[in-house]
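Researcher: Structure for this, please.
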Amino acid sequence: NYQLIVDLVQDKGLGALQAKFEALKRKLDVEGLFDASAKKTIPPFPSTICLVTSPTGAALRDMLSVLGRRAPWVRVLLYPVRVQGKGAAEEISQALQHLATWNARELPVIDTVVVTRGGGSLEDIWPFNEEKVARAISELNLPVVSAIGHEVDFTISDFVADLRVPTPSAAAEIIVPDAADLRSRISQMALALKRGTGTAIQRHADHIEVMG
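Model: Predicted structure, token format:
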């Protein structure tokens, strides 16, 4: 004979964290925190970007490498926080609340905020599924990019942020223009301007000659 004492029953394949995730997602969706109409535009030519992440994580190294290659003129500020474990959600939400008043009292002026970390298990990235973090992102008056984990990872922060990017490196590729591309475009514009100016001068010279 066997006797089972059951303290908790969960659906197979759906743990307590996943159920909590879905419940919060539904709640915030109903409140309108995911509405596209509330999304702020990410500046195409930022001068200062703030990274809210761990100072020792791979996400920071990856983003700094890409940003330095693509847009070396962009100033990058680091707001160090824990991105995993107990107290991480509190640190992230407090950082975002602090940044909400940054541009009114600090220099340089921040154009874009990136909340980021590398990949991990659902437990590892859970701070970005906490309600306090989601509300801090929603209430921030600066454009927020969420770049959490790997491409297959989705967090509540992704849905609330103004832009969700699948990885930290991809975020760095998207939020700044590429210097080489800019140089090429400027060269093409300069050449077109030179040709157009030359054509206009010649046309007016021909007109003067005919009138003379």
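Researcher: Any notable elements?
Model: The CA atoms of residues 145 and 163 lie 5 Å apart. The chain has a mean pLDDT of 91.
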